[in-house]
């Protein structure tokens, strides 16, 4: 499903006149339906890997080969922006710790829009969006509210609802349980387990190793650059 081949990414700090390496020579291979976990200390480059796959960052070297549904294997680092955006809308989901949304868009509209992008019928999209918001304990009183008024935990649960409701072929998870209580974590785990059972391929970063137990098929350790069994 996905091959990350020898990618490297650095960042220039202009006011210091410095260039610092974030990741170097990263190689990952994830089979269809597999869940790969990524572990490592803060600042080791875990999020940089996910953002490089999603296209938020562009590595200087290497290739990221994704087996797209219609096109087959494509190098995501060579794709035109509009083709990459289309893949994000229809095949690849991303959950971060932070919620970035268009202003004056309600929580229900955001989740519904995710399904409309997949070609879902308007009424069916709304029903599925409502079910997703209920699952992740977003109170109905907040469905017509703007997410900038939400707490950190509510924003994260909304972010997860938007990504998982689409049942993407590939889902990238960057600390999806960072600010959640235990009950909310269990709901996230249930959603992830269902997606995996239905064939979604997943790559996830977690500090909570207990949460990963029984979910991940393999784990990539940033400390030694190797993939091993959990």
TrEMBL record:
The keyword ATP-binding applies. Residues 2-230 form the ABC transporter domain. One of its GO terms (cellular component) is plasma membrane. Pfam families: ABC_tran. Gene3D superfamilies: P-loop containing nucleotide triphosphate hydrolases. GO terms for molecular function: ATP binding; ATP hydrolysis activity; lyase activity; transmembrane transporter activity. Keywords: ATP-binding, Lyase, Nucleotide-binding. The keyword ATP-binding applies. InterPro entries: AAA+_ATPase (IPR003593), ABC_transporter-like_ATP-bd (IPR003439), ABC_transpr_LolD-like (IPR015854), CP_lyase_PhnL (IPR012701), P-loop_NTPase (IPR027417). It comes from the Bacteria. NCBIfam families: CP_lyasePhnL. This is Phosphonate ABC transporter ATP-binding protein. It comes from Salinicoccus roseus. The gene is phnL.
């Amino acid at each position: 499903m996905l091959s990350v081949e020898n990618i490297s990414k650095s960042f220039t700090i202009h006011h210091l006149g410095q260039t610092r390496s974030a990741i170097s020579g990263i190689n990952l291979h994830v089979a269809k339906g597999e869940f790969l976990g990524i572990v490592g200390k803060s600042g080791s480059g875990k999020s940089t890997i996910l953002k490089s796959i999603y296209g938020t960052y562009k590595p200087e070297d290497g290739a990221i080969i994704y087996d797209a549904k219609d096109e087959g294997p494509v190098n995501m680092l060579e794709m035109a922006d509009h083709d990459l955006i289309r893949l994000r809308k229809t095949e690849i989901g991303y959950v971060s710790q932070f919620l970035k949304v268009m202003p004056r868009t309600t929580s229900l509209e955001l989740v519904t829009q995710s399904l409309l992008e997949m070609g879902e019928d308007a009424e069916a999209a709304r029903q599925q969006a409502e079910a997703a918001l209920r699952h992740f304990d977003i109170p109905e009183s907040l469905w017509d509210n703007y997410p900038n008024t939400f707490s950190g935990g509510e924003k994260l649960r909304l972010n997860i609802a938007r990504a998982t409701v689409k049942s993407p072929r590939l889902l990238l998870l960057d600390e999806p349980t960072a600010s959640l209580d235990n009950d909310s974590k269990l709901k996230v785990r249930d959603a992830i387990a269902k997606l995996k059972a239905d064939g979604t391929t997943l790559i996830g970063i977690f500090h909570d190793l207990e949460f990963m137990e029984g979910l991940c098929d393999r784990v990539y350790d940033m400390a030694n650059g190797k993939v091993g069994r959990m």
